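Backbone shape codes:
===
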Amino acid sequence: MQTIFVQIKCELGKAYDVADSAVETLEEVSEVHSISGQYDLMMKCYLGDEADIGHFVTQRLQTLPGVKDTFTIITFKAFT
């Protein structure tokens, strides 16, 4: 399982719509948080080991209505 975090910059007034759409339509999206700073949302996503991260981000996340820009963080190890 691969874990990635994707920060999303939304069109003005669309952050809640993007968050709702991601949670409702993408099973890989585990959590969506509204955040401060240059981006509006942070999504935590779980992808299968063989999944192509680039394709997921460009074809599934960036094409959500209202998404303006993304910044992807690939994780290595989770500490509990």
About this structure: The longest helix spans residues 15-25.
